[in-house]
Amino acid sequence: MDFHFGEAFDAIASAIPDREAIVFRDRRFSFAQLAERSRRFANVLVDAGLRVQTERSTLAGHESGQPHLAMYAYNGNEYIEGMLGAFRARVAPLNVNYRYVEEELLYLFQDSQAKAILYHAEFAQHIASVRDRLPDLELLIQIADDSGEPLLPGAVDYEAALAAASPDAPDVQPSPDDLYILYTGGTTGMPKGVLWRSADIHMGAMGGRRFGGAEMTSLAEIAEAAEAGPGAKFLVGPPLMHGAAQWGAFINFGMGNGVAFPNDNKKLDPDDFLSTVERERAASMMIVGDAFARPLLDQLAKKEYDLSSLLVIASGGAPLSTAAKKEFLERLPNVTIMDSIGSSETGAQATNPSNKDTGVSTGDFKPLAGAAVVSADLTGVLAPGDDEVGWFAQQGRVPLGYFRDAEKTQKTFPMIAGTRYAVPGDRARYREDGSIEVLGRDSVTINSGGEKIYAEEVEHALKQHSGVFDVVVAGRPSERWGQEVVAVVALREGAVADEPGLLSEAGKHLARYKLPKAFVFCDVIQRSPSGKADYRWAKAQVEAAQEQS
After folding, report:
1. What is the pLDDT of residues 446-463, one digit of tens each?
2. Is 3.30.300.30 the CATH classification of the domain at 445-548?
3. N or C: more exposed end of the chain, with fewer CB within 10 A?
4. For domain 370-442, which architecture applies?
5. Domains of the chain: which residue ranges?
């Protein structure tokens, strides 16, 4: 059966009303309180006139008949309340990268046709700078913060609006067909709005399945699973504007767990992050690859924390290197590292659990329900042991398409052997043992002398060097090879540039033709707030270094 988020969350809240659902700084909200606050927010949207214009059944996959709410906010209870309230009101929420500059913001607001924006006061002037170019915009809801920014003209204060709104469910009937919209990061191209049926993303990545992959079939089963859960705390490190963080939060709600946020919701403060784990006795925490792992491991080397409650380190959204996994297990031998992979277009696809008994690896994943590898020409589905590098794909619960882009929708969600797949662009190989080796995004693959070199595999190899803090790899033109590999490297404090040593370490893990032909050293590797590599930035660094040489 299919459910919409409102009824699924109500089933959870009814089963465990008094358990803590949200912990952020000095705020603590139970599941019952979170449910009521989200109903109030839903009424704010409905009372402002935001109503469905066209039902899903009459629309193509790239179309929307609902009003859209842009979530332009840092982590906190308001983000979760805003998402839940939007679902209850039949308004489709969508994520906004809060680091965007004016031009990027204008593009996203215009492309998404946002009718309303929920935003922290800190961003008020950014909205003011583009507001007169947003004819679709009808409602501004401003979250007070410590920035001192006054309300924009015509905007409503978030807490005042909730206090004035009814605590009852709004007079609308949400549908499992209602949209969940996730904008891609735009690290290799312009962001695209991925349209999901809320029922599909609920099952595919947000708590609708049990650990074995079986879908829950009734609201009673959803309630029972939450009630049977441990009531532990799950610490969310990455920003909720990143899909993996949203998914982790809602999965834990479904497990009956509360979600906690570090005090600093603007950047990763390793001491604050680990102190929150200690204070809340968190059983699990979420990070994004080495961008989070490296600073946390360095902090653990400086200061002791009581992390005895911690059982799971969940990572998703960016690669977590073998070296980082090994160091985590050396420092926290009782944890399991749950390295997961998926995308905006697929939901959760596969996991790579590691602990002190299993050992560690990177890039090797056990497929979840619906995961597959399809042939390079998109004509067939590969079986375990097929010796072909194909595309990492997903079938079953997949998105409807990209908002306002029929051509891209058809290309990314093709029919193969009579089944519709999501094929967002990662290369993969299906191993004989049933595991899937994920090689990396094809759009950042380097073609050198006719050989394909995947940026992520070179990055993994270089991260084994003890002096490397972070690295991202890009290609540059080569008269001899067509393209050649260049590594942009940030060294650990006190380390010195040692190109022969870096090549020697990488050569232990890679064929010679994959090794970097040059290195560019910088103080910090630029990444998105969610920790993903920014390959456009990396390419710019490589080009700038080449011009200076």
Report:
1. 888 777 788 888 998 999
2. yes
3. C
4. Roll (2.30)
5. 5-19+27-199, 370-442, 445-548
